[in-house]
Amino acid sequence: MLDIQAQILARIQAADTIIIHRHVNPDPDALGAQGGLAAVLRTSYPTKTVYVVGSDPENLSWLATMQTIPDDTYRSALVIAVDTADTPRVSDARFATGAGLIKIDHHPNDDPYGELNWVVPEASSTSELIADLVAASNGQLQLTAEAARFLYAGIVGDTGRFLYDNTSPHTLQVAAELIRYDFDPTALNNRMNQITLAQGRLQGYVFDHLHITPAGAATVEIPLAVVQELGLDAGSVHAAVGTPGRLGNVVAWAIFVEQADAPYRVNLRSKGPIINELAKAHQGGGHPLAAGAKAQDRAEIDQITAELAAIVAKGTQHE
Question: What positions does the domain DDH occupy (predicted)?
Fold first, then answer.
């Protein structure tokens, strides 16, 4: 067991109350790591009280349900934030009011908050790290079918069903161990791949309005009016994030989603060129090939568009 894993396990064993947070606008890995860790701890330590908190998972409510707890629950609680790179993205600001704070994540560690940080950017997902923690505990932590389902969902989500280059031999080994447990991975995969007719129409809108440079930089803006006309919520729009990447001539892309009460949300993805530094320059961050940012107005949209085109053009020149 790694020293940091041993320290985390010791803090967990010493705590009577544990509250697990994750990031806003959760994806399957955020919910998988959160729910998987909670299921493991509830089984391994039945006398402890374990909570999962955060905003409504919206279109992923079928995967996980959040709990509502009063402020004073934090007074003596150990808080664990999973899959959240920086403090502004932690869902529910009360995470900072506990008696202790641990960060478990696989994003670049630009904001090393908490007393203990276990951050492994090479890992496919935070769900993979939770599975590793269980495996390294020498039986102190117990995996269940419920926990395995959560963790498998998180790994599948963050690897794009094992399509992305963050899928390592170890990732596949972990996934193989998880599906030994009593849940239906085929049904889970089918549920994660499922979209509504409205989401399908949104993907059609993306294809119809996509602008692609000769080098393969693609951009599209999704107006709020389009989202509202389709009857979609903010979480459901995420179904279109990977859409441009299905085109063979697209190398990297940005999707600008207009928000009702905030700047544009910018989803950045790439098949090769590094784009998380671009995200950091625009109030965001993330993985080298998958990141998010914000655009305050049309001028910043144009700026990000130009910068993405330059990154892709530079990358193709070196091929």
Answer: 18-155
